[in-house]
């Protein structure tokens, strides 16, 4: 019974983080929620008795992809500030 409750909470958490990542207007928040989704997905793979896939999901899905997306967001943030400054200079 407790296992079903844990699995149900895991599914609910996966759905909530997926929707939150998709609907977030703040890019940084969306990437952080996406990384949390990757960690939860790794836990789901462990619950499905697939530890090899869980390790790959944690390392690639939450780790490497998350870091690369955070780097991209930081570059987008500095680029958008430069564009705003240029627009302000023209006006």
From TrEMBL:
Main location, first listed in the record: membrane
What are the subcellular locations of this protein? Answer: Cell membrane
- One Pfam family assigned to this protein is MbhD
**What InterPro entries is this protein classified in?**
MrpA_C/MbhD (IPR025383), Nuo/plastoQ_OxRdtase_6_NuoJ (IPR042106)
Membrane topology listed for this record: Multi-pass membrane protein
Q: Which residues form the MrpA C-terminal/MbhD domain?
A: 13-76
Q: What is this protein called?
A: DUF4040 domain-containing protein
Which spans are transmembrane here?
Answer: 6-23, 30-48, 54-77
Q: Which Gene3D superfamilies match?
A: NADH-ubiquinone/plastoquinone oxidoreductase chain 6, subunit NuoJ (1.20.120.1200)
Q: To which species is this protein native?
A: Marinobacter azerbaijanicus
Which UniProt key words apply to this protein? Cell membrane, Membrane, Transmembrane, Transmembrane helix
